[in-house]
Specification:
Porin, 62% strand
Amino acid sequence: MKTNKYFLLGFITTGVLITSAASAHDPVFEVHLGAHQEKSDDRHTDAEFEFKYGITGDWVAGIGTSYQTMNGHDANDSGRGPSSFSTKYRFWRRDTFGTQESAAVFGKVIFDDGDSGPGAAPDGNDYLLGLAYGFEGRKWYRWASFRHRINAETTTGLTRSDVWLVDLVGGIRFSPTEYHEPDWVWMLELNGELIENVSQGIGSVKKHLGGNQWFLSPGLMWTYRNFAFKAGVQLPVIDDLSADQERDHYRAKIELEWHL
């Protein structure tokens, strides 16, 4: 199976756990609730719950689960989504007056323990590896991330495409606020998906998947003390997918975070 070579991710994560445990300090808890919807010919919705723990000031680990529904022309389906384990480590940080820059690496394992739900069930875990950069100032924000998702085959032996994900984000706070005041940041993102070309099936029923798609995504982040609310919509601007692959009409997401 092609995901076997990424077993190294678990080995590295275990090593970091062992070497960092003695230096753990300032634990921070975070509860994350979210809902994500994709609308193509069908409508696919994920409701997500994730709990994160700050092991150190630079290292966070989390566990999550989800519930999925799909409403289509031919059938409706729903089921418990996969659970996941994620970890993120900030390896660089620079603070200046009124600004902070940082860079981090992160990984995620999406387990194959969900119900069949929408789509074909994976026969193995999926993996996500990535690198992120962020700049936060009193007025301007900017973020960037590059991620690689490695997908397992389905239980019926069909190949699922691996995907490269690119996110470029700019944000502005029009009116700087104090900690005890509600805070608004308006954002605009460019999100890209570079999907591996694969073939599924045989003979006349063979499907070809893959291609690229890019989205322009306006969004909003509202925070008040230790609460944060995020919302955004992805609108397709470039679509170079194979003829056998559904095009997204839009995607929408809302998130709520509570830091303890």
